[in-house]
Amino acid sequence: MKRKLNFKTVALALGISGIVVWGASIPFTKILNKNHIKNDENISISAEAEENKKEEEKIVNYVGTNEEGKKYTYDAKKVAQKLAKYDYSNDGKKVVFLTFDDGTSKTNTPEVLRILDENNVKATFFLTGSNIENGGETAKELIKEEFNRGHAIANHGYSHDIKKLYPGRYLDIDAFKADFEKNEELLKSVLGENFSTKVIRCPGGYMSWKGMEPLDKYLEENDMVSIDWNALNADAEGPKKNAQELTDYAIKTAEGKEMVVMLMHDTYGKEETVKALPAIIKYFKDNGYEFRTLV
Ligand SMILES: [Zn+2]
To answer: Which residue ranges make up each domain of the chain?
Structure first.
């Protein structure tokens, strides 16, 4: 593997090799090609390269997803802006974002991950910190699984406590910030300091609350975005539905939209969502949608 070498490495290598090339037009990388240097020199270079690699790894920032996951991402800001205008067009290209809120659960999240893998599609998980901590090490391992498999991880706050976040239905920005920052810290403690996310989803949905201007300002200042949805399987509203009813609801709310942000839940008690998921995925595949994630 070719790696860009820093000045220190180049200087060291040149010192060892005794080649004077200052001012010459030969690229350093060519001079330092492993084929051109002897074994003992190679060891020094490797040690240096190894150190460089470690340094580079330290500064890789995983914003929402891992390296593999980057292939599937969409700019959540652009999607949110369209949703805010009820504009679900996408230049003739169909795209669906499967989103799962309130996880993780030890019961349903593993099944959701398995089904997504089986269908070779990626999703976005809006995680709730209190559920993660209640699930202990197993729940934390599940977040790592979500991340390692190239899904996107987003912030749904720590407590999901509606009364605390929006007393009297009005946003309490200080409580909100503290709650989401606490969750971000928890996610970092599990996924590493290099992990961060720009994407949040307000418990209950941004659309449901009043006095949200301070949040707009906070998101703007921190280069973050809040995103709701424009389709849902309704696994968290109205009377409890079976898998068929959830599938029908998902399709009914997605139909005719080129850009679909589908709200579902992988928390406790959502077994029917798991059962409905293969059929929901099939609908979007059959109708020519690409599956993407929000970062
Ligand atoms: Zn929620």
So the answer is: 7-59, 62-294
Distance 142 CA to ligand 1 centre (A): 18
CA distance 279 to 284: 9
- Assign domain 62-294 to a CATH class: alpha beta
Distance 119 CA to ligand 1 centre (A): 25
Cα of 263 to ligand 1 centre, how many Å? 10
Q: Which residue has the tokens 């996951």?
A: 69
Kind and range of the H or E run holding 26: none
| Residues with a beta carbon under 5 angstroms from ion ligand 1 | 101-102, 203
The whole-angstrom separation of Cα 242 and Cα 253 is: 17
Please say whether the beta carbons of 273 and 264 come within 8 A: yes
Over the stretch 148-193, which tens digit does the pLDDT of each residue have? 999 999 999 999 999 999 999 999 999 999 999 999 999 999 999 9
Cα(83) to ligand 1 centroid in Å equals 18
DSSP label of 70: G
